[in-house]
Amino acid sequence: MHLFERKPFKMASGGVARYTIQSKALSDEDISTLAWLISEKGDIRDIYGVTEGGHRLAAALEKYRSKQGVRLIVDDVLTTGASMEAARVKTGWHDAVGVVIFSRGPCPDWVLPIFSMEWINTEDEFPASNDVEAASG
Fold first, then answer.
1. Which residue(s) pair with 16 in the sheet?
2. Which backbone phi and psi does 72 adopt, to 5 degrees?
3. CA dihedral 9, 91, 95, 56 (to 10 degrees)
4. From 50, 52, 98, 100, which residue has the greatest number of CB atoms within 10 Å?
């Protein structure tokens, strides 16, 4: 199994993606390191994992829980944000911070992606070379 696979994939949102992100391909050490990186951002009081990939990340975050801090809602891949929003309603944690390993597109303002694939999933092309030179100064 590869982390990224070029094949059509029917997303939970109903749309069809041109590639898949198989977070199952991430090793336990990968997930453990991602959990550690997340924990470095601040204290974590509560954790809720969305879907199978989210449960795996939530389990790795358990050892970083404290009596104070934020409530985290975590998932592996965000496409539209609907699953994250549903989890926030289900938990009643309207003050939660969301963290996802990969986002395919824009995240709701309360969700932070570790890796964003937003540009990849647009029709945007590389800027003209003189635009790049002007931007880099």
1. 10
2. -110, 135
3. -50
4. 100
Cα-flanking dihedrals φ and ψ of residue 65, to 5°? -65, 145
Identify residue 2 by its one-letter amino acid code.
H
Domain spans of the chain? 33-123
**What does the pLDDT read at residue 10?**
85
Q: What is the pLDDT of residues 30-89, one digit of tens each?
A: 999 999 999 999 999 999 999 888 999 999 999 999 999 999 999 999 988 999 999 999
Q: How far apart are CA 98 and CA 87, in angstroms?
A: 10
pTM of the model: 0.86
Q: How many beta carbons lie within 10 A of that of residue 13, not counting itself? A: 14
